[in-house]
Write a structure and sequence with these properties.
Layout: H1 25-53, E1 68-74, H2 81-98, E2 101-106, H3 120-131, E3 137-141, E4 145-147, H4 153-158, H5 160-166, E5 193-198, E6 201-210, H6 213-222, H7 225-229, H8 236-246, H9 248-251, E7 254-256, E8 264-265, E9 280-282, H10 294-297, H11 299-310
Parallel strand pairs: 1-2, 1-3, 5-7, 8-9
Antiparallel strand pairs: 3-6, 4-9, 5-6
């Protein structure tokens, strides 16, 4: 017995029919609007929240109050009270003339982990930046020096056009034959670090740093434990020469200016010798006592600066 084949299924089945919704059309439209409004409100909240915590991509410039902070580290355990009192008086009188601030730190204030005491100048400068965040410039000046000229720092060195007129371009960073030279294309506005050279190299006894994020980076780099623990012959001085030559980020903000701009010496064998009218005289390499005692070498200049400031 034969049975009939079942009917063939169509190769074109009827289209899928969506399940009918039990929600009336008007309610479906209302629900869609509510979801859309809620999503927009959520996105707006996220935008406002992100704006509240977003920081500006460009750091805020200091207000310039005070314009300059003069920083000097004093060794009260080694040098005489009268001599150090004259250093304090010199800095304070000069700062009062121009609305600057002075910050004195002392040897022993900071834990250098066994590093030479000369490293105090670097951490003193970092301390000053923290204490005076609105200052425009910081001038580190060793205790072996007097300020001899009452003119303002802005007129003598710190204005951008003045820096540009003074900076020595395409010049060996460590004379006489360093292959690393100062950049020839920099402008005064590019500069954040101003210092001089003497007969032995870069001179870290008197220099200027412009306040800002770069200054913090520079000082933290200079004060790196690796450099403090390394046996550089001149401690922080040779560490400075190293980082300036091998860190383009630092070299690109550096201006070397003539030594007599703010770093004249009292002896010709060390560098350019002071003449009347120079801003600073330093007895570089002077000692606490003996033939090269600082107080003895600077005695004449102590009298001179008092006279100049009273004129």
């Amino acid at each position: 017995m034969h049975f009939a084949y079942p009917p063939r299924k169509s190769s074109n089945p009827p289209p899928f029919r969506a399940r009918s919704s039990r929600i009336p059309p008007i309610l479906r439209r209302s629900r869609t609007k509510i979801i859309a409004v809620g999503a927009l409100a959520f996105l707006g909240f996220i935008y406002l929240l992100s704006g509240a915590f977003k920081t500006s991509s460009a750091p805020r410039a200091p207000s310039g109050n005070p314009p300059v902070v003069i920083v000097t580290n004093l060794d009260e355990t080694t040098y005489g009270k009268n001599y150090l009192a004259s250093i304090r008086d010199n800095r304070k009188q000069y700062a009062d003339l121009h609305g600057y601030e002075v910050m004195f730190t002392k040897v022993g204030d900071y834990d250098l982990k066994g590093s030479p005491a000369s490293w105090n100048k670097v951490v003193s400068l970092r301390h000053a930046i923290t204490k005076y965040p609105e200052a425009s410039w910081f001038w580190y000046l060793d205790q072996d020096s007097y300020i001899m000229n009452t003119q303002s720092l802005e007129s003598l060195v710190l204005k951008s056009d003045k820096i540009e007129s003074l900076m020595i371009k395409d010049h060996p960073v460590v004379p006489p034959d360093s292959i690393i030279k100062t950049f020839p294309h920099l402008k005064g506005n590019d500069i954040d670090f101003v210092l001089t050279q003497d007969r032995e190299g870069l001179s870290a006894g008197s220099f200027f740093v412009r306040n800002g994020e770069w200054a913090k980076f520079f000082i933290d780099t200079w004060f790196d434990p690796l450099y403090r623990s390394y046996n550089f012959q001149k401690a922080e001085g040779h560490a400075l020469e190293h980082i300036v030559q091998w860190h383009p980020t630092i070299l690109s903000r550096l201006a070397i200016v003539p030594q007599k701009t703010f770093n004249s010496y009292n002896r010709y064998d060390k560098g350019e010798m002071f003449v009347d009218g120079d801003l600073v005289v330093r007895a570089a390499g002077c000692t606490k006592s003996g033939d090269r005692a600082c107080e003895k070498e600077l005695e004449t200049y102590n009298t001179k600066w008092h006279a100049a400031f009273k004129a």
